[in-house]
Design goal:
Elements lengths: L8 H13 L1 H9 L2 E2 L7 H8 L3 H10 L13 E2 L1 H20 L1
Parallel strand pairs: 1-2
Helix pairs in contact: 1-2
Length: about 100
């Protein structure tokens, strides 16, 4: 997808590099969708879960339910399930980038 023509080259490069690093950023930038928000009572657990990798992340995801999230708004949010998948992909991209 082409970048908006009103962006200067440096801004376009920053956007492109961030899109390479994060699927969630790409979805936000291209479609304007953001992850379904976490309810306040689950935010601390969520933030800790985001630090997990590998099987720790996989096991964490098994315990996450729709009850952790604010109501879904079509056209505004990724579903909570999509969010888990995209966060997992982002984690994998970061882990592999660190190994190179």
């Amino acid at each position: 997808m082409p970048l908006p023509p009103n962006k200067n080259l440096e801004e376009q490069a920053k956007i492109y590099l961030e899109m390479e690093r994060s699927l969630i950023y790409s979805v936000r930038h291209i479609w304007g969708l953001v992850p379904q928000p976490i309810k306040e009572e689950y935010k601390a657990r969520w933030e800790l879960g985001l630090l997990l990798t590998g099987t720790g992340w996989t096991n964490f995801c098994k315990n996450v339910t729709k009850d952790w999230f604010e109501p879904y708004q079509n056209g505004l949010h990724l579903t909570w399930q999509q969010s888990l998948v995209f966060f997992g992909i982002d984690k994998h991209l970061r882990e592999n980038a660190q190994r190179v």
